[in-house]
């Protein structure tokens, strides 16, 4: 199978945006690419394609909202992922204009997605004054993180104990908690996974595990096989980091 180039990825998202516009030109305000493709760290064959659809308020029946895309949009996303064999996921999602501004509805990732839109967003259809959208505050981020952890405890963890996390899930969870520390304690917002660990370690952050970090770095840069012992250690690091970081940041008691 041919590896998807960065040029091809841009062509796909532009074609997708035009198809969205044909579906509902009245309520589709703009489409912004976010993530690795828009921010210069796209990795052919590994990166997915992320985008935000800015849509008119009260257009849930057509597009859905930040919490759940409509069936129409979900079907379109699925079609593009399967047609073009997009790695990992094809994740365009809708944001109503009112959702861009505080007070935010409780949502496990809304504030982070707004930050990504402001810091990474590149328009491929339409236009919106993204610069006028306020950056979520430290308190806004904290509230979102708390809602996410409550969801983890009440719903996700029941069927997905840390002891059974895949290596990929462990890596993503570790990076998530490191990134939370950077946001809350250092006012640093970084979405490039390859930069999070260097930033975290350079500021003498707490709860570091050299062996665990080495495994995470290796998984980010190459696809070496991780041993059973390393998998066990990285799962233990997830549990240790999550518990201590949540307490430090005031996300949990």
Could you provide a short overview of the structure?
By secondary structure, the chain is of the alpha+beta class. Helix content is 54%, strand content 9%. The longest helix is centred in the middle third of the chain and has 22 residues, at 138-159.
List keywords for this structure.
alpha+beta; 2 domains; globular; four-stranded mixed sheet; 54% helix; 10 helices
- Named at the architecture level, the CATH assignment of the largest domain is 2-Layer Sandwich
Largest sheet: 4 strands, mixed
First and last CA, distance: 49 Å
Return the CATH class of the largest domain: Alpha Beta
Strands side by side in the biggest sheet: 3-2-1-4
Number of domains: 2
**Can you count the helices?**
10
Percent range for helical residues?
40-55%
The helix-and-strand class reads alpha+beta
Order of helices and strands: HEHEHHEHEHHHHH
Strand content: 5-15%
DSSP summary, beta strand count: 4
Mean pLDDT: 92
Shape: globular
**Global Rg:** 19 Å
């Amino acid at each position: 199978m041919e590896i998807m180039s960065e040029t091809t990825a841009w062509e796909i998202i532009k074609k997708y945006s035009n198809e969205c516009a044909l579906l509902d030109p009245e309520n589709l305000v703009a489409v912004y690419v976010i993530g690795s493709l828009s921010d210069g760290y796209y990795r052919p064959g590994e990166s997915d394609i992320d985008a935000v659809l800015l849509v008119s308020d009260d257009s849930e029946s057509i597009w859905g909202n930040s919490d759940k895309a409509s069936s129409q949009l979900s079907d379109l996303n699925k079609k593009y992922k399967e047609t073009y064999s997009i790695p990992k996921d094809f994740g365009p999602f809708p944001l109503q204009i009112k959702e861009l501004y505080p007070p935010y509805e409780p949502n496990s990732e809304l504030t982070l997605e707004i930050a990504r839109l402001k810091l990474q967003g590149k328009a491929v259809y339409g236009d919106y004054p993204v610069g006028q959208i306020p950056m979520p505050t430290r308190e806004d981020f904290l509230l979102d993180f708390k809602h996410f952890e409550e969801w983890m405890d009440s719903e996700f963890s029941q069927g997905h104990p840390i002891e059974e996390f895949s290596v990929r899930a462990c890596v993503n969870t570790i990076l998530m908690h490191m990134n939370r520390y950077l946001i809350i304690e250092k006012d640093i917002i970084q979405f490039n996974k390859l930069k999070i660990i260097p930033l975290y370690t350079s500021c003498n952050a707490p709860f570091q595990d050299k062996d665990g970090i080495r495994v995470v770095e290796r998984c980010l840069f190459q696809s070496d096989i991780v041993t059973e012992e390393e998998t066990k250690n990285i799962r233990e690091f997830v549990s240790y980091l999550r518990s201590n970081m949540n307490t430090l940041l005031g996300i949990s008691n």
